[in-house]
Design a protein that fits this description.
The chain is α/β, with parallel strands linked by helices. The protein contains 15 helices and 17 strands.
Length: 457
Amino acid sequence: MTARILVVDDIPANVRLLEVRLLAEYFEVLTANNGPDAIETCENGKVDVVLLDVMMPEMDGFEVCRRLKSDPATSHIPVVMITALDQVSDRVRGLEAGADDFLTKPVNDLQLMTRVKSLVRLKSLTDELRLRASTTRNIGIEELLSRNFASEDTTPKVLLIDERKSSVERIQKMLRDRADLDVTGDPHAGFFQAAETPYECVMISTAFADFDPLRLCSQLRSLDRTRFVPIILLAEEGEEERIIRGLELGINDYLMRPIDQQELTARLRTQVRRKRYNDQLRASVTQTIEMAVTDGLTGLHNRRYLDSHLQTLFDRAVARRRPLSVMITDLDRFKSINDAHGHDGGDEVLREFARRLRKNVRGIDLACRFGGEEFVVVMPDTDGVVAEKVAERIRAEIAQKPFAIGADGKTIEVTVSVGVSSVLKGVDTVAALMKRADLALYEAKSGGRNRVVAKAA
């Protein structure tokens, strides 16, 4: 695993010590000896994880972390605070500043490396989501990245899997009014409960009498529905090896007993904030994909989707020796509609035409807006005779019922010309198929409009 790690400390010996440890694991290491330089490096370079000292002159680590996490350009970079401070209040302060973890000097090598590797994997996932989402800016990605999910009012839904009644009661008390907490003492039932309910965090105790909690962590990470749900391990003193193994398996965080209420709520808030951030990124990726293949005005597929999918349908029809037909429709004298009623009126006509078109074709047919006032319908398993009848039905549907425009319900007459073509036996291509449909449409337009013409149909 390779990644770029930024080490920030005002003491050169501390920087060198961490640098040697990281280089031995084949990480690329950047260094900074003060807060402003660290922020500039994060803004200008590709940094995967920041190891940040707290006690620095002028700008301490808490302020550096706060600034990094408040900037949309750097808020996704994981920050691990490393300091000699060992008070719970200091850890909580770091977590509230947005730190992803907090390690106390002297840092255990295995603990440091498993933390870094875990955060590098998380950063890699986030980077991929950000890259996909940022392929378009008109979906509000900048606004999305600047949201502060930690300040959202919605209470997180959390599952606690712990068989010890006294432990459960303490955690319930700690999280009262801070989380919607479900509890189960059975790890097997907990697994199915986590899979069936959209939890934002799962907390798993290590204190089971006859069950390995890491097996449950592994099972949750292997299931699609729970793969990205944060897992916090509640461990006992002396379980460092189990914690390290858990981090390697993909748990997100851990707490040592006795659990401090402030640290519990701060770490839970950090995990929920990160999950909501990545969930929003995934949603924006889905929206981006939909926008890439959908016409925003009519809701039909767009030309990009047609260009990629028509070839697949064509190849399948040829391979199976099944018919396939295409119709191209064009609204007659559409420019005059725009001129008379404005583009808003023209848009209303296009939306209503798309609705009627969708109503008159089958679910397996591919209806697309080809561009402007032209639409294409691809009809699998449909020969030319049937396709021509469908085209005539659509033409009649458009001509017989006027289109309403504007809030006053004014109506106008609209007609459509249609060209139809079908796949020819023997040698044929998608380009030739579309060319024939286009020529048929031209004949329909030049022959008086409001008609259907079929070429080799």
